[in-house]
Amino acid sequence: MKVTVVGYGNVGAAMVKQLSAAGHAVTVTGRQPNGAAQIAELHGAKHAPMNSAATHAEIVVLAVPFDNAAQALAALGSLDGKIVIDVSNPLTADYMGLTIGHTTSAGEEIAKLTKAPVVKAFNTLFAQVLDGGATFPSQAVPVFVASDDPAAKESVVTLIKSMGFDTIDTGGLKNARYLEAVAGLNIYLGYGAGLGTQIAPAWLKRA
Known about the structure:
Helix 1 (about 10-20) runs parallel beside helix 2.
């Protein structure tokens, strides 16, 4: 697939690494061209300015903080015919809480800013887990997926599985409210409780 990753921080860089390793045609973009170029060169991807980076993309990974999402989407221009993957969480300044959650979510708010279907995914995983790849010693790392668009969700599930990750369908985009809370708990466990960043939430089903 042709994938544009917006953002080159820890999460964005990890996404570029894994998508490129899976054989996808990846373009990196962001506010600072030099930052995007460095990550692109490191992982064998392309880089482009914000206003043209998504022109030929099928999927756009929005790997920027929630507070920067509106600005990033505006800079990308029209995303008609594309799919947006939202990996963000609406975190407080100390990363130990969420700024919204009971009546909306980052995923739902981002969906209001674009005509493209939005799929919530990857937000429950630390960047270090993404960077390390899809497999823990006991099982494939699960990615929770939520969207109101079945076709978009199916495309994203295919993308995720191509990267080696497992997927768990969590229903409509409204359920991003729960996924973002799970991410908040995972952040607490990793940092607040001192368990480190090589942890990830999973869903078990008895056979």
